[in-house]
Every structure is written in structure tokens, then in C-alpha cells.
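Look at one record.

>
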Amino acid sequence: MTPQQRLELYRRLGDSRHELADYLAIPAWQRQRFIQGNEARMIVEWLEQRTKLAELGPALLAIGRDDLAELTRAAPAGREMPARPLPERTAVVLTTYDAETLAVTGHLQEELDQLARREERGTLFEIGTFAGERSNWKVAIAEISAGGVTANAAIGRASAAFQPDAVLLVGVAGGLQDLAPGDVVAADAIYDHDAGEEYPPEVKMHAPGHRLQQHARLVARHGRWQRQIRPPGPATPPRAVIRPVVPIGNVVGEDRSAAAARLRRCCSDAVAAGFEGLLHGAYLGRRTEALAVLGISEMLGVDEPVGDEHRRSAAARHAAAFAFTVLDSAGSEPDAQPAAVSGTPGRYTVNITGGQGVRIGDHNVQTNHFGQ
């Protein structure tokens, strides 16, 4: 199609755009992202991104718009550049319970019963496709129990089976400070400790993939990720921050106020807590970029324990929206070559000083991937 033919199509499609989108089986959640008044153009772009523009003419004929089908006939040679295909990437996403998994699968093109399945040494992965605005992703999802060993094993199996470009942990956590229920935190560091014990003078921290963290900061700064919440989010948009988090277990449920106070005292820059050792498993010992994205369901020591599945589900949906926006952003660029950095990769030491916060001491952080 020439530029003139495209403009004519955009002007004349009118209300037939609804029938056209139905015939082309464009998912409802993707239609919600179409800009009002520009639906015709965005349908054409949707086809181009999937190298399916040839389907436009037959689709227009099928809905009775023969007049517009004429506009899709091949343009003279040299008049139009072919559409550039979007980059193809692979991601593994880990969750820990069904609401988180459903929030993640809501961003895939396939319905739940259409997802492919693959079992790797006892870990079951459901596999689908995420079609973003800047990149396309094959996504393998595993719902596993909380625990570092389990997560580490699942990531190892996924790495061998899928060779992913990224690993994401998408879930729900409790807030410690500077957040509100519904907000999202992407962890730029994870404290390494036993939640049931007081903190020692030195606390290890684990760092995420540098590149994913950079794209997370970009997405949070631009503030448009909330448009990807499915179904659409609250009237007041949730915030996203890139801050440290603390993995904790049942101790908070047993003594919430005391545990929350201890966490705030010893990890003064951490803004969220949860997931026990699963966070460690995502950030430890891997050469694949990884990022933990957590939705806040409650403020620990302030709110009553969450018994409302609606709040947990909303937090999971917000986390999934942010995570997939980061994936789309990160997938649009060519692969970067990791820089060689000496020292202990992927973790550094933080000195706790008199409850006054943290001071980062001598450390070596490998910026582009994890430990050997």
C-alpha cells in the first residue's frame, strides 16, 4: 500500500473497524490499547508487526468492504519499504500462587487452554506469546513454591530448556515504607538474611541484571505502564519504584508489628518484604538477566493482614503490567556484550551502623549478568 492508499483506508474504514478487528481476532486487551480515533491505523500496524499485512485485503472482503479491499492491492515497485519485523526474545516468569499466574497469562496472546505445556524434571512450564509494541516474546511460566532451593532449581531447568534472555519473578509483597497498596517495586537489591533472626553486623545483598534494572527505571520514570493493567486499573494510577526489598517468611504473620519495625531498623532503605528465599533464587548464581517485580498488597505493621483476595489479585495485576512493559522495552534493543568485572559477581556487602541506615562498603558488582 502507498501512503496515499493508507490514508484513504484510515479515513473510510469508520465503524467497520470493529468488524475488522473481530475478523482478524485481535485480542480485546490489545484493542483497549488502540488510541481513540486512530484505530484503523493501529490495526494496520498490528498486522505489520506480525508480518500479516497480506491478510488485510481478504479480511476487508469478508466483512463486505470491497471498496477498501481495492486499496490494499500491491503498490508499484519501489514505492514502499517492507515493515521491519519486531525482535524475538524468550523470557521465563516465576510466580508462587494462582492469582499471580493468572495476572501474567493475561498478557499473553493465547487463552489459558491454548497455552503449550512443557515439563522439565518435574517443573511444569506453560508457554505462550507476548506481543508488545517494540518486541515479541516467547514466555514460559512456572508456578512454584516459595523457597530459594526451589526457585534456583526451576531457573536452572528453565535456563537449560529455553535459554531465556530474561527471568522475571512476578508476585505480591508487603510494603515497609514509602509505598501504598497497589504500588509496584522492582528490586534493585535483595537483602540476604534469615527472617527469624536479628541482623548480623554485615548483611549480604544480591543485585539484579543491570540492563533489566535500567529498563525498569525507564518504565517507572515514563509512567505509562499503568495502561497495561488488565482489566484497567484504579482511577488513581499506582506508582512504581526501583528500591531494595527483603525476603521474609511467616514471622511477619506471627508478629507483624515487631518484625516490620525490625526490618525498618536494620534495612532502612528497603521498601517491601515477602517471598522468603524465592527472591534469592531469582538473583543468585545465574548468567541470565533477572528482575523481581512485586505488587504491594498491604503495608506491614499498619494494615490488617490481607484476607481479601481482591487486593492481592490487584497487586499481582499491577506487578504483571509493569513487568511486561519492562520486557517490551528491554526486547527492543540488540543484545549487549557483558563487561568483565573482577571480584565476587552479583553481590556486595552492606554495613549496618547503629540503626542509622546502610552504607555500601567495598564491593564488586557484575553489571550485565550473574555469578559463575
